[in-house]
User: What shape does this take?
Amino acid sequence: MAYSAETPFDNIESAQEYVALLLEAIEEAQREVNAELDLTQGPQVERRRRALQLVAHNLNRLAFHIAKSRRILNDLRTLRRLLLEEREAPAAAKSSAVGAA
Assistant: This one.
């Protein structure tokens, strides 16, 4: 009987998909905030401009951390494949190629 995921985070691949979607949403928000910053000029909107700059800064930090999480998930997936022998080890691949020649 095949295993059925109960939540979206039951496996690394699902978590990777979620993180990728989250990163896309963050990038879209960054574009919107930057566009708003370009339109916000003048002394009467200085407080709004500073608030938008703070939002842009926090979105940049969030994007950095999410991208870092994405790399960690990729490393975990690679390690899982190696541990469960889902991927042939490089040394074994080379020795089998030499033996076949």
